[in-house]
Design a protein that fits this description.
Elements: H1 7-107, E1 113-121, E2 124-131, H2 134-146, E3 150-163, E4 167-178, H3 181-206
Antiparallel strand pairs: 1-2, 2-4, 3-4
Length: 207
């Protein structure tokens, strides 16, 4: 019976398997490296794209902030201009009224009375003056009360002052309210209407 030596064939087969294993292992390593590289490139690209988006959003936010600031400044300037316009309109509207008020103060001033100080706060006028007698002060109060542009005179102080040994005067302080004829008529109409409603209510209650 012939004997066959199988050792060389087995060694060759073992070497072939070993080579195939190494080739497969290398292919797996190369594939894994390629995947890692591709994943790294993808992530880097996504990060750069997101950073670009963030930069764009920051620029837009900065532009919006600048516009909002500009709008706020424009609103502030508009309010300042409106306030100035209102002041100018009030001054122009009150100019004839102030002239009428000062004219009425002169017209209501009786003989023997003169003013030493005037102070106007809103519609309230504070007056200081001197008169030859109390009767002159009373005449001034009646004239103020009869004026269409002045109302509610209120004497706050009056006292006799002697200058030297002969001259004597009555120094007084009073307040009076600035008004207008149309405002006074409207106030009187409102008062009359309120009084009429009150009378009707009283009549209804008595019935």
């Amino acid at each position: 019976m012939a004997r066959i030596n199988l050792l060389p064939w087995r060694e060759q087969r073992r070497e072939e398997r070993k080579q195939r294993f190494l080739v497969a292992l290398g292919a797996v390593l190369v594939g894994a490296a390629a995947l890692v590289f591709a994943g790294d490139q993808y992530l880097n690209g996504a990060i750069e794209q997101q950073n670009a988006r963030n930069d764009y959003v920051r620029k837009e936010i900065a532009a919006l902030d600048a516009r909002i600031k500009e709008i706020s400044e424009l609103k502030k300037r508009r309010e300042e201009l409106l306030a100035r316009m209102k002041i100018i309109q009030d001054l122009q509207g009150n100019r004839p009224v102030s002239a009428r008020v000062f004219d009425q103060l002169v017209r209501t001033l009786p003989d023997g009375v003169h003013f030493t100080a005037l102070k106007m706060t809103g519609k309230n006028i504070a007056i200081q003056g001197a008169a030859e007698s109390n009767n002159r002060v009373s005449a001034l109060m009646r004239n103020l009360d009869a004026s269409d542009w002045l109302a509610a005179p209120n004497l706050t102080e009056v006292k006799a002052v002697t200058a030297g040994t002969v001259d004597q005067a009555n120094v007084f302080q009073l307040t009076v309210q600035q008004t207008r004829p149309d405002e006074e008529a409207a106030a009187q109409a409102s008062a009359s209407l309120a009084a009429g409603k009150a009378q009707q209510a009283n009549k209804g209650a008595t019935k």
